[in-house]
Design a protein that fits this description.
By secondary structure, the protein is of the alpha/beta class. It has helices spanning 7-19, 30-38, 56-63, 75-88, 124-137, 188-197; strands spanning 46-50, 67-72, 95-97, 109-115, 138-149, 156-157, 166-171, 174-179, 184-185, 200-208, 217-224. The N and C termini lie far apart (36 Å). Bound molecules: S-adenosylmethionine.
């Protein structure tokens, strides 16, 4: 049985087949590179992206010479990333399929980041496992960036049973049928609590209006406690 948080696989396939365009656009979010620089991450540091989607952030960082691996649960997303990586002349083998909730890579990283993935996780156990992945895969002095949709005040939670249902959406001036995906927005206090319950500490938490595809997001900079 498919999990509700796999609905992006259907959405990517539908958007790519109907438009041959990236659902999330081509632009990267500058926040990631700003924070890599803030924490002194260099070309020798190991970086992992969790839930990279169509790969706009990882491909940009690979082009800039960073040592990035990028993963997503959606095979269609990873197919798209590899195709674009080849077009951009960066290493396509850096992209791989991975469910962050059930995988242990037996490897630790200097820096792990995730853009707009945690808000897809509606069930608390799934959210707890997401943060646990960061805890288990960060080096002792490693840093993590967890970006979630929302302003930290408004809360919202979709019914996981609604995931995959087809809905008509306007995309690039064209009406297309795409799968509904899940969403949970939490308060700033809830976000900090769930991160800290996983054995991580929040170094900084800010609102950010520059994340590609989202009006406003919370950006948590984290490390091991
Ligand atoms: C809103 S999209 C964001 C994609 C990309 N980070 C971006 O900024 O465009 C959420 C992504 O999380 C991925 N995702 C959801 N659940 C996941 C899981 N359990 N493990 C890995 N990726 C997951 C989806 O497949 C989708 O690509």
């Amino acid at each position: 049985m498919k999990h509700y948080y796999e609905a992006y696989e259907d959405r990517y396939k539908q958007v790519h087949a109907q438009t041959n365009k990236a659902w999330s656009g081509e632009s990267h979010s500058p926040t990631i590179e700003t924070l890599l620089k803030k924490y002194g991450v260099c070309s020798n540091s190991s970086i992992l992206e969790v839930g990279c989607g169509e790969g706009q952030n990882a491909i940009y960082l690979l082009k800039e010479g960073y040592n990035v691996e990028a993963s997503d649960i959606s095979p269609e997303a990873i197919r798209w990333c590899k195709q674009n990586a080849k077009k951009c002349g960066v290493d396509a083998s850096k992209f791989f399929v991975m469910d962050v909730l059930s995988n242990n890579l037996n490897k630790k990283y200097d820096f792990i980041y995730s853009v707009a993935v945690i808000h897809m996780l509606v069930e608390q156990l799934d959210r707890d496992n997401f943060f646990k992945f960061f805890y288990e895969h960060l080096k002792e002095n490693g840093k993590g960036i967890i970006i979630t949709m929302g302003d930290g005040v408004q809360t919202y939670k979709t019914n996981p049973n609604d995931a995959f249902k087809l809905a008509t959406r306007n995309f690039e001036g064209k009406n297309i049928e795409i799968a509904t995906t899940s969403c949970r927005m939490v308060t700033k206090e809830e976000f900090v609590n769930e991160i800290e319950r996983a054995g991580l500490k929040v170094l900084n938490l800010e609102l950010d209006e520059s994340i590609q595809g989202f009006n406003i997001c919370m950006v948590a900079e984290v490390a091991l406690k």
